[in-house]
Specification:
By secondary structure, the chain is α/β, with parallel strands linked by helices. It has one domain: TIM Barrel. The chain is 46% helix and 13% strand. The strands form 3 sheets. It has a 5-stranded parallel beta sheet with strand order 4-3-2-1-8. A 3-stranded parallel beta sheet has the order 5-6-7. It has a two-stranded antiparallel ribbon with strand order 9-10. It starts with a helix and ends with a helix.
């Protein structure tokens, strides 16, 4: 082969490699559907890290990459990052501290590089701001939310984002409806909630047109059900703009109020599974109600928070708590419902960088091993 042919062959090889690399990069950057994201999440973990430069008063554990490796090795394949930025906002500019944004960005990269799904849930309002959400509080939320969405727009699509808020005004409206049976209060509740999510969605889509947004319900389903959300869904699956969102419920929403079931011994394991699915006392709060709604609308949902009462000094024994976790995770897995459960701080020893050594934690990890999705 002469020199010219060698040069031509070398040039072609370089071209092919560059094209292949570019294609690979495009593949990696392809958006994923909520169903694909939820399959990645599987049995997730609730993470609240100590985020510089200030603690928020409700922090979880110190962040180390070793923690994520350890979680994944035990069948925990995703995480819900809860960013409580109440003390990280400049009161004049309404912008997040840049160090906090950088730190969250690093955690997201560490999670997604391990092929773990992550949902970043964001809240920035002080307690007093949540009682009456005036225009100043809204501006603070909207401006910092836009900053965060823009800063994270180029992240892996395994990152989903979720604006959250517990606005006590919504509770007030529902209480007024219960007391007076005046439906105008319920209409105001629905309208104010949907306007809030609509404004935040518009901001999100400015910089993240194909990223998943997750809408979170703070209410019991009996107060404000999934079907009350005015989601951007038109039933047209051929419209890609309608695909990148999902909803989540916590504790009493979508999976029943197991804490209200009374003394454990009154229920067999089958009874407990029945209550998780059906919740005879409050059917709208039951998992089956959420499943039926999802099947009807085609909108995916997941359970973003659950815990046994082992750490709440309840009446259940260690064995009963473990049986509950098995029952819950088995039920969710049977129905293909992803979840983010136990807080990281419950099971992780930050000082010694390992899972805690107590018997309950070790038995709990075996349950995760047994019921892992992958």
């Amino acid at each position: 082969m002469n020199v010219d042919n060698l040069k031509h062959s070398a040039s072609m090889l370089v071209f092919i490699l560059l094209v292949s690399f570019g294609c690979q990069q495009d593949i990696e950057k392809q958006p994923i559907t909520p169903k694909e994201w939820l399959q990645k999440m599987g049995n997730g973990n609730w993470m609240i890290f100590n985020i510089p430069p200030k603690h928020t008063g409700f922090a979880d554990v110190s962040f180390e990459p070793q923690l994520l490796d350890s979680l994944k090795s035990r069948g925990i394949t995703g995480g819900r990052l809860h960013l409580q930025a109440r003390e990280m906002i400049d009161p004049h500019t309404h912008l997040l501290d840049s160090k906090a944004v950088d730190f969250v960005s690093t955690i997201i990269d560490e999670l997604t590089s391990r092929d773990m799904a992550v949902c970043l849930q964001y809240d920035c309002l002080l307690k007093e701001e949540r009682y009456y959400m005036g225009q100043a509080a809204k501006n603070k939320y909207f401006k910092s939310w836009r900053q965060l969405c823009t800063a994270l727009k180029d992240k892996d699509y395994l990152l989903a984002m979720c604006p959250t808020i517990h606005f006590q005004g919504w509770d007030y409206l529902y209480d007024q409806f219960k007391d007076t049976q005046d439906s105008s209060h319920l209409i105001s509740l629905n309208d104010s909630t949907n306007r809030f999510y609509d404004d935040l969605t518009k901001i999100f889509r400015e910089s993240n047109p194909k990223r998943i947004i997750s809408y979170r319900m703070w209410f019991r389903a009996g107060n404000f059900a999934f079907e009350d959300l005015d989601l951007p869904y038109d039933g047209n699956s051929s419209n890609p703009d309608e695909e990148y969102y999902m909803v989540s419920g916590m504790m009493g929403y979508g999976i029943g109020h197991w804490e209200d079931y009374g003394v454990w011994n009154e229920y067999s394991l089958n009874d407990l599974k029945h209550q998780l699915l059906n919740n005879d006392e409050a059917p709208k709060d039951a998992l089956m109600h959420a499943i039926n709604w999802s099947n009807k609308t085609g909108i995916e949902f997941w359970v973003d928070r659950w815990e046994p009462n082992y750490w709440k000094y309840g009446e259940w024994t260690q064995e009963q708590n473990l049986e509950f976790v098995k029952c819950l995770l088995d039920t969710l897995k049977d129905h293909g419902i992803a979840s983010c459960g136990i807080q990281t701080r419950r099971i992780w020893d930050s000082k010694n960088m390992r899972f805690k050594n107590d018997e309950f934690t070790q038995q709990l990890l075996k349950v995760f091993d047994e019921l892992r999705w992958e």
